Backbone:
């Protein structure tokens, strides 16, 4: 690939060499940090006011609904996650709008699923990101499609403890 054909970052690529792929990458990192750190309000702030979030079969519309979803999901303080992003492809559709495709690997200790296993879920996220007037990228649409899930036995007999 020629130097002027694409702009590549550590996890991102775009056919537009001047498009702000870094801003979209930072959105993914802010989202996963907020989820992994158990901050529902901050998670919701990564979405536009009229966003569509589909973490599975159900559709969640708007920031308030995203915040309520995560407040409920994170109710058990033992639930612990880590989100890892890879293979981000950004396709600009306007100066302040881009379609994305990215692979999400998610490790989760969820006692509601298992007290002895960690779940590894690998899936694709597709969506639309928009840049607000303040220059910050947010999800207008975030659709998760699970490809597969595995259960990995905990090697330590103690279950993970919640963060203080």
Residues:
């Amino acid at each position: 690939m020629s130097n002027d054909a694409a702009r590549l970052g550590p996890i991102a690529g775009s056919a537009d060499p001047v498009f702000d792929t870094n801003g979209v990458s930072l959105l993914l990192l802010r989202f996963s940090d907020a989820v992994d750190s158990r901050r529902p309000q901050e998670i919701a702030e990564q979405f536009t006011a009229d966003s569509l979030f589909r973490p599975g079969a159900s559709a969640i519309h708007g920031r308030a609904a995203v915040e309520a979803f995560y407040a409920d999901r994170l109710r058990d303080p033992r639930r612990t996650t880590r989100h890892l992003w890879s293979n981000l492809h950004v396709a600009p559709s306007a100066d302040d709008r881009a379609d994305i495709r990215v692979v999400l690997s998610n490790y989760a200790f969820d006692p509601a699923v298992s007290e002895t296993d960690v779940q590894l879920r690998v899936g694709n996220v597709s969506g639309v990101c928009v840049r607000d007037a303040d220059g910050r990228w947010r999800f207008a649409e975030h659709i998760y499609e699970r490809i597969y899930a595995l259960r990995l036995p905990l090697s330590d007999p103690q279950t993970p403890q919640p963060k203080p």
